[in-house]
Amino acid sequence: MSSSNLQISGLGKRYGDFVALAPTHLDVARGEFLTLLGPSGSGKTTLLSLIAGLAQPDEGRVLIDGADVTHGAPYERDIGMVFQNYALFPHMSIEENIVFPLKMRKVPAAEARRRAMEALEMVRLPHVAARLPRELSGGQQQRIALARCMVYRPAIILMDEPLGALDKKLRDQMQLEIKRIHRELGTTIVYVTHDQEEAMTMSDRICLMNGGAIEQLGTPADLYFRPRTLFVADFLGESNLLKAEVASVDGDVLSVRLAHQGVTGQALSNGAPIKAGQKVTVMLRPQNLRVGTSGAGLTGRLLDVMVTGSLTKLYLDSGVADAEPIVVAYPTQRQAEQYAIGQPLVVSWQAADAVAISE
Ligand SMILES: Nc1ncnc2c1ncn2[C@@H]1O[C@H](COP(=O)(O)OP(=O)(O)OP(=O)(O)O)[C@@H](O)[C@H]1O
Ligand SMILES: [Mg+2]
């Protein structure tokens, strides 16, 4: 991942008065797997369409390898696209479907056929070459759509919710498949999803979007462990968000007093400037909390226990009006201690696992 492959500079799009994408800057490195993540309507598809040339921006530029392609036609850009609805040609065989983009690029027939078979090997479906799309499952069709996009080796592949229509198990398999192909080909990928788990597993970096603008851009770990805003903390993974006030600041380490029971403790800053006396929200991930029947910490009554497969989750009422229950999670074990509903429990954590988000 050396030079930047795709540069987006002040790119913006409006529909009438509505700002679908505020002027946005984004650099994607060669070979990077970048995911656009965000709620419905946050501008993910808009940004992707502007990169692909399927929509025209009102301002800003798109550069590929330094060349300005902002107003070029889609086919003039070295870009492949895979959509949620794979849109294979129904009357063509799988092989003909994959050969099609090569034919359009005037690749000789024998060479096109050889490369199509190679692409089919890549998605592990060489045996379906002669079939029609309707003779394949949804997951297989999506793999063919991927093969059809890879076959002409674009430098950049854009994917808009490519796994959205698949069931959970198939999604998991396809995620691994796409990662493997990305590793083997070294293609730059810009991937759109609104599934935060998918974004976390797949990406080198995540660009979290909100209301037509970038909310935070960074590695999955950056966003997960150092959210810059409450929106990020809330969107990525489950979290307990507790109101607090900063008592003192020592570099990156803050002493905080929680509104919950006046409990004091330490938390790390999220990188934003902060001063004593400031109100913050302390983020605690459920799996970083420990629970016991005595000791120092936050006390809560056990409301509910849920076994969600690999994790067991405890919900505690902290007694604070209007506060969400505190969630504690730990790996499910047959031998785990049994707690009774209504029982008071003490929750504690390590300073390094608490992050203060300034408001
Ligand atoms: N052609 C259009 N005309 C008017 N408004 C549009 C048009 N295309 C998109 N929008 C609006 O722009 C906003 C961003 O849309 P976009 O499709 O980029 O969202 P998204 O993040 O891809 O959402 P989703 O997760 O639902 O696909 C939405 O509010 C949408 O209604
Ligand atoms: Mg979309």
TrEMBL record:
Its EC number is 7.6.2.11. PROSITE patterns: ABC_TRANSPORTER_1, ABC_TRANSPORTER_2. GO terms for biological process: putrescine transport. InterPro entries: AAA+_ATPase, ABC_SmlMolc_Importer, ABC_transporter-like_ATP-bd, ABC_transporter-like_CS, Mo/tungstate-bd_C_term_dom, P-loop_NTPase, PotA-like, Transp-assoc_OB_typ2. It holds the Pfam family ABC_tran. It catalyses: ATP + H2O + polyamine-[polyamine-binding protein]Side 1 = ADP + phosphate + polyamineSide 2 + [polyamine-binding protein]Side 1. Residues 6-236 form the ABC transporter domain. Keywords: ATP-binding, Cell membrane, Hydrolase, Membrane, Nucleotide-binding, Translocase, Transport. GO terms for molecular function: ABC-type polyamine transporter activity; ATP binding; ATP hydrolysis activity. One of its GO terms (cellular component) is ATP-binding cassette (ABC) transporter complex. Part of the ABC transporter complex PotABCD involved in spermidine/putrescine import. Responsible for energy coupling to the transport system. The complex is composed of two ATP-binding proteins (PotA), two transmembrane proteins (PotB and PotC) and a solute-binding protein (PotD). Belongs to the ABC transporter superfamily. Spermidine/putrescine importer (TC 3.A.1.11.1) family. This is Spermidine/putrescine import ATP-binding protein PotA. It comes from Achromobacter veterisilvae. The gene is potA_4.
